Amino acid sequence: MKRYGLYINGSWSDPDTGIWFDTQNPYTGEAWAKIAQGNAADVDRAVAAAKAAFEGVWGTMKPTERGKLLVRLAELIERDAARLGGLEVCDNGKLIAEMGAQTKYMAEWYRYYGGLADKIEGAVIPTDKPNILNFTRYEPLGVVALITPWNSPLLLLAWKLAAALAAGNTTVIKPSEFTSVSTLEFMSLFAEAGFPPGVVNVVTGFGLEAGAPLVAHRDVEKVAFTGSDIAGQKIYEAAARKIMPVTLELGGKSPNIVFANANFEAAIMGAISGIFAASGQTCIAGSRLLVQRSIHDKFVARLVEVAGAAKIGDPMSTETNVGPITTRPQFQKVLDYIDIAKDEGATCVLGGKPYTGKGAQGGQFIEPTIFTGVTNDMRIAQEEVFGPILSVIPFEDEAEAIEIGNDIDFGLAAGVWTSDIGCALRMSERLRAGTVWVNTYRAVSFTSPFGGYKRSGEGRESGKDAIKEFLQVKSVWIAHETTPQNPFIIR
């Protein structure tokens, strides 16, 4: 098996612990690489390298030059997208069709922010003070910690890293201990693109040993994190002790709402996409399917028919629809929630158990599962499962759909299926979610901001809004006359 070290200051090094741990392929169940187990000493080295680069060559580099490096990186990503996508499949078990598309598409984030790097502009402010010029500057924060999850490592890294670098920051990345390989392999492209050493660093390992020291480090000026709301809360608390800004993209329990006047087949496919794509292992999963009561039974019958025909198996096959659950703990968590739903009185109309048929290597497959008879107060409707488990909830009208849709601690996304433009506009206005899709689902772009309401997060990623998450504004006052002023009163 290949052994991966830490990437610090442009070179590879062994961890301070001298320990490597295995990473497993979720499909085969076999270990396929060894990952360095970093600790606080390694974090210190990585942060020091990032700080030196920020105060040195990267900090003095003109924004246009930074932008050119990001554009060059985008070109290299496109060249290596297939290889990187294959590595992600080995690490997280998601479909090659999806991961290959993600690794190719992530180039657009680096290209977009490469173009934005030299368009960060302050303003001259016409104040009420005579003989004083006032203007603003947007400046980078310094060393930024980027902590990424196991479900889409490189794409979700791009959402953070591209904006952070375009803004002029340097970075230390802590990938999930379950899916570190693609991030480590990605590092070779930075040197090839011409990035100075220390601008991008990677410390692998576990949360308590590597992640917590990174968040708490005195020289880290911001944390951008994607993961569960529980982990996000802990990071938020640690950041508060430092009075440090954060961007948190956390969990979701998104309502996918189908009205009787919707295009029936399009809504069926949207419901399938919302929950069974990526085996439900996505923060934007439409795990609560709200169906207008007049079409509920017909819709569920067709949904069961389509979802039941999904092909389960090898994620490297382009014919596979549903791959394995990425980690063994997550596999057990999903099974536990199936039992919880049954105990609460929900009716399982599809799936509800591990898949053990043809192609079920590794033993981490769960059948696409649909529950009816769900009420919104059940745990299966309120808590994020992060697996291929769908709760179907009926509703009567717009008012009840809004009430149910918003009756949740999360607010990451929502879907609406209707042929009534007035309904679409009313729903998109009243749903408390950072993203509302109408007659589509899971659409994202480098041009559009993404983030959540409530426990789903803080701040925004992607689009022009995201770069301001990695900047701080400074107000500069310059007096251009020297008449002495009364020093004992504010000017």
TrEMBL record:
Residues 14-476 form the Aldehyde dehydrogenase domain. It holds the Pfam family Aldedh. InterPro entries: Ald_DH/histidinol_DH, Ald_DH_C, Ald_DH_CS_CYS, Ald_DH_CS_GLU, Ald_DH_N, Aldehyde_DH_dom. GO terms for molecular function: oxidoreductase activity, acting on the aldehyde or oxo group of donors, NAD or NADP as acceptor. Keywords: Oxidoreductase. The active site is at residue 249. It comes from the Bacteria. Belongs to the aldehyde dehydrogenase family. This is Aldehyde dehydrogenase. It comes from Pseudorhodobacter turbinis.
